[in-house]
Amino acid sequence: MKTLSFPSRALPAAAALSAIFLLAACSGQPAKPDASLVRAKTAIDQATLAGGARYAPGDLNNAQSQLQAANAAQAQGDNKRARYQAEDAEADAQLALARTQAGKSAEAAAQVQQGNQALQDQMDQSNNPPRL
What we know:
Blueprint: H1 6-27, H2 34-50, H3 52-55, H4 57-75, H5 79-127
C-alpha cells in the first residue's frame, strides 16, 4: 500500500486555502457600476426622446437626479452606492417612459373617440333630414 507523504497532502490544502483567500479578497470591493450607469443613461435618453418631459416630468427629474448622485458616488469611490443609485435612476426612467406611453395612448384614444363621435353625428344628420 502506498502512503502519501506530508508535503503531498499539504499541497491540496494549501491550494484550497489560497483559493478561499483569493475569493475573499475579490469580494471585498464591489464591482464598478459602469454597466448600471450606462443602462440608466440609456433609459433616461429613451424617456426624454419619447416625451417624458411632457408626460412624466417628475419621474424623469427623479431619474436624472439619481443618475447625478450615482456619478458623484462613483467619483468618490463608493461603487456600491453608485450602483444602487444608478439602478434607481433606471427604474425611474422606465417609469417615466411607461407613463409617457400611457399618456400618448390616452390622447390617441381620445382623438379616435372624437372622430367616432363626429362620424356618428354625420350619420344621424343624414338619416334624419330636416323637414320642410
